[in-house]
Amino acid sequence: MSKTLSFEEPIVRLREKINELEQFTAESSVDLSDEIETLKSRLKNLEEDIYGNMETWDRVQVARHQQRPTTLDYIEELFADFIQLHGDRNFGDDEAIVGGIASFNSIPVTIIGHQRGKDTKENVKRNFGMPHPEGYRKALRLMKQAEKFNRPIICFIDTKGAYPGKAAEERGQSEAIARNLIEMAGLTVPVISIVIGEGGSGGALALGVANHIHMLEHSTYSVISPEGAASILWKDASLSKQAAEAMRITAPHLKEMGIIDEMIPEILGGAHRDPKTQAVKIGQTIRRSLDELGKLSNEEIVQNRYDKFRKIGVFTE
């Protein structure tokens, strides 16, 4: 059972009340249908009010929701004939990053994405979605393979960040991420990245040097977590809510600043409420991007990506 988010508590209590009345009506001869309909109408208005006026910290909580759809969930809904590929041909396989080949509307594509778990056992298996260097090297291997066979690359970003452990550092975590940034910048095939949950630090950027970057409405994308930023700025991680607001890390903020190309609307309450419908919205965005980027030559693809990142952070005096 998923954890209730703090801002959702009034909604949860009202749903519980409706369920109680429905159960009482089913088990007795008392007709409470009018009262139930009134509460359902009130619930709809409450959901529209709360979910329609979410603050930055509310979106952070939704981005971290335990039941939020993952890369493999979207692969199952959006792509046909997915063949998962493993290993970096150097050290081993990292299950915090999944990748392979599939078809999207009959177009061969390469898919790469962070993969976290939805329960403790799977999170341990996936290292909580925090890749080791071999994960990024696997991703790069698949990208270079896609370039060789002229396949578009679709990346799903969903990680707190690269794993900061001793073993990861010994195997070259920083070098692996930096290598991805360099190589992705020069890929001659279209690269589309979609932030579907948390996009944290270099661990996210290692799959984010793309021609088009899209974000789900309640996802986040930043150089550091709000807790980490609060610890550095104010020496107090409890001020993470204020840090999140100051950092402007949500899709509406990043769209406004021109860092992302499109904000993909989410189902009312978040993608976890209806993953299938959310996948349809993502599919529509991927289709538009492929149509637009498919008109460009290999040289234009590289220049398009270069121009996109050159525009980020431009200032005037």
TrEMBL record:
PROSITE patterns xref list: COA_CT_CTER (PS50989)
GO molecular function: acetyl-CoA carboxylase activity; ATP binding; carboxyl- or carbamoyltransferase activity
Reaction(s) catalysed by this chain's protein: N(6)-carboxybiotinyl-L-lysyl-[protein] + acetyl-CoA = N(6)-biotinyl-L-lysyl-[protein] + malonyl-CoA
SUPFAM superfamilies in the record: ClpP/crotonase (SSF52096)
Record bears the keyword Nucleotide-binding: yes
Domain of life: Bacteria
Keyword terms: ATP-binding, Cytoplasm, Fatty acid biosynthesis, Fatty acid metabolism, Ligase, Lipid biosynthesis, Lipid metabolism, Nucleotide-binding, Transferase
Keyword Transferase: yes
Enzyme kind, highest EC tier: transferase
Compartments reported by the entry: Cytoplasm
Location of the CoA carboxyltransferase C-terminal domain: 35-292
Metabolic or biological pathway: Lipid metabolism; malonyl-CoA biosynthesis; malonyl-CoA from acetyl-CoA: step 1/1
Any one biological process term the GO annotation gives: fatty acid biosynthetic process
Enzyme Commission no: 2.1.3.15
Cellular component, GO annotation: acetyl-CoA carboxylase complex
Family of this protein: Belongs to the AccA family.
Record's function text: Component of the acetyl coenzyme A carboxylase (ACC) complex. First, biotin carboxylase catalyzes the carboxylation of biotin on its carrier protein (BCCP) and then the CO(2) group is transferred by the carboxyltransferase to acetyl-CoA to form malonyl-CoA.
Subunit structure: Acetyl-CoA carboxylase is a heterohexamer composed of biotin carboxyl carrier protein (AccB), biotin carboxylase (AccC) and two subunits each of ACCase subunit alpha (AccA) and ACCase subunit beta (AccD).
Protein name: Acetyl-coenzyme A carboxylase carboxyl transferase subunit alpha
